[in-house]
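Usage example:
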Amino acid sequence: MKMFDLEKAIQEWKRNLFKNPGLEERYIIELEEGLRDEIDDLVGEGQSKEEAFRRVILEMAPADVLGAEFYKVRTKRRSGRPPWQAPRFMPALLWNYFKVALRKIKRQKSYSFINIGGLVVGFTCSFLIVVFVQHELCYDRFNTKVHHIYRVLNSDSQSPDILSALSPSGWAPLLAKDFSSIKRTVRFFTNLGRADLKYGGESRTVQGLIFADGSVFNVFDYPFQAGNPSQALRPPNTIVLTARAAAAWFDKENPIDKIITYLRGTQKIPLRITGVINNIPSTSHLKFDYIVSFPTIREFMGKDALSNFTSYNYYTYVLLEESVEKEQIEEGFPQFITKNFDEDTAENLSLHLQPLSNIHLNNTIRWNIAGTGNPQYLYVFSGVALVVLLIACFNFINLSTARAQMRAREVGVRKVVGAHRRQLISQLFGEFILTSLVATFFALILLGLFVQKFGVLVGQDLSINFFNNPDVLLLLFGIGLAVGSAAGIYPAIVLTAFNVTTVLKGTTTKGKRGTSLRKGLIVTQFTLSILLLVSIIVVHNQIVHMKNVPLGFDKEQVVILPMTGTVKSHFDVFRDRLISHSVVQNVTLSTVPGRIMTSSGYNWPGKEGEEGEGFYSMFADPYTLETLGIELIEGRNFSDRIATDEKSTYILNEAAVKQIGWDKTIGQPFRVWDEEMGQVIGVVKDFHFKSLHQTIEPLVIYYKTDWSWSAAVRFNTAYIASAIQTMEEAWREFEPDIPFSYTFLDKDFDRHYRSEERLGHLLGAFTFLAMFIACLGLLGLAAFSIQIRMKEIGIRKVLGASVLEILRLFSMEFLKLVLFAFILAVPLGFWLMHSWLQNFAYRISVGFLPFLVSGLTTLLIALLTVCSQITRAAQSNPADIMRYE
Amino acid sequence: MSSKTLIAAAARPIILSILQSGESYGYQIIKNVRQASGGTLEWSSALLYPVLHRLEKDGLIRSQWKLSEKGRMRRCYLITDVGRKELIVERERWLNVHGILKKFWKTAEAFD
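Running the assembly step on the lines above writes:
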């Protein structure tokens, strides 16, 4: 039996104490002395040295407690916690896990960069989209009464599915009278939002002027900065400005009670400023800077403008009692209609209520007050966000599992000292969560930097203030956490599954574990990247196609001028003034393609039913066809020499003729509304007067200049500037007060493709990022697999392989994956793009070219990525590699 | 015997009181306390030495290394003048608390 050696035991005990950073030598000597005294005493009492030593040691606190207590005396830290000890709130090993995780991030810089960088990019993309989607979804919710405000819609019995937002002004007072649970009604009139205002000798054309009942401030939340909300818009000839508008006109002056003049045609309507409100939030579907009191419209819409039942020019909103559901009101509508309207109207009309919160994302309603959001967009964007996020996640999983054996030794050691597998899983899992939280943090910074630029891209005024939106911040962190967990759970399980003995013997499987999964994920990543690439090519091609397809009229070199009453009443003189300049080729007073609306009430002998037929209607003059380059294929044009031409002659397009089904068209009797029967004098070749989303529909061109509010001027391209100047000079002669403004017909027409263009830009940006992340992952994996096979490269070189051969050998491995991804992407992409193109009446076919281009691009990028890694390895001196061990 | 915090709080006046009657060293102080409490109060070195160091740092006691009768280096502690004054203040405090508790317990006994 071994003899107990007290000295040795004490030395051992001291050595242990020395390891503790809190214990200095002088403390240990003191402790030792006490220990020896006590042992001496116990031995004196008759115990053996061994017993005495064990007992004293047992009673004395363990080294770390001693160290911490001694440290406490010296430190200035308030908590007294030594830095080498875990904070008290952390369970036992967590501190160690945390340290190891940070150490890993710090030591393996390039790996951490690829891993975190990929996640950061992925997170930033998806955060941007989350912010956008959230912005779209919370439209109009700044109104405290949002759930009780509804817009009145109507439909007629002919097309009950088409709901229109426009209503006559007379409904609101009747609704308020007949339904006790309708608390308030508000009417709006927009007049397209454009207006000419004049104050103190300066006149400007402004956007965002609307007319509204004074109750608007009782229904919607528009906080006042100055003025009295309850009285502001009650009397006629009053106006309320937003802070922005007030600053634009009056700078720091007080605008209240100033008189601003509204120029409308020849009329000059004075408006007294009665209030200033906060700027309208970007999430309001009603966007304006000027509200004029509703009764003011009597000045130009006629004396009965406030109680009219036939002019559908207004928007009616109602505020319901809080306890009332919209269905309860809608039930009463049929009775309301029969009671208040004549039989004919009552038969055809039905009313509906649309919740305020539903207005922005419902793009099926006709005559919306402003452009709506596109719910389809939300899906597409969310899909793209998900794809980018997936690619980033896959990277994360790939890199983590690939590096498994690097961690294997740590896992092995932890297992040997008694760690449970569950403990290890939670350690590694926590590490991944930490990584994704770090990524989330950086992504939030990037989000703050890019959110406004992204807003421009999607055509929304996006901004984010985390302090005002803690829930958004929470949501984003939630996403970060969720992704970290989703991506971390698998690697955590794989990494901890190693067998201790094999790991510590150093014979780990050479990263074979999970290779097929890794390959699968790479294939998925590249399939998604190729898909995105194909989409941008197809979207781009379609846009180019739409812009270049022959429209059947000439949209180049034409300027559109909005008309005013004054200019129109002297249009012949105005026209002559312009024509006399050599740069101007032709001028017409006409509705222009891209802005043509339907009109009902066309009739001809032999037509079935009494109701007039609805056709697209273009109001024109004798110069229209020539100015716009529309081809007449039969009959004659309008003539200003034949007095009966105006108001009684019609020119139809081929589609209209085909629909009506005449054998011989010219001379057929035809009329609109209750005008006298006129005749068809000509047929024009079909031309695209609407965007290429739609087919060419029947169109009636009608010689009626009263109804067109725009003029088109064809000019000589060489002299754009002088042409514009000529027009402006002529304009000034007739309308000195109203600023001259114009648009180019081709730009005006192309605005129909803006949403596709946006989609294109957005897809472009995200595709780039997705490719970037995928390549980052590939880079990491390539670097990694080469690191493992360094010795193989060395041996191959010694045996005579050239750099090129090694390059080919190793790159093939990765290129095969990209090739496989390509094969997967083709049918998927074809199907996706084919269904997207169904949105367009005039579309390109998908074709194979986009696939070829994207496939080759992806292959090339992947090749470059992989080769950059392999070349370095292949060029290294085999002697260096082989000497390594 | 009593809660940890009470032991810790009482450590200062107890150590000062022991040193009041002459210099002493770590193990002797532990033994003194053990004897005085009849074995109910057992100080560990983890408690005693940090308190000693704290007192020294505050200037209430000072220490010097001496050779013990067994020929080992031993750190002896002595009370300083500041320490003596502090002990008077501490004494007042403890007696005050003691007096209050006594009064309450007397009334409590009356109801028993």
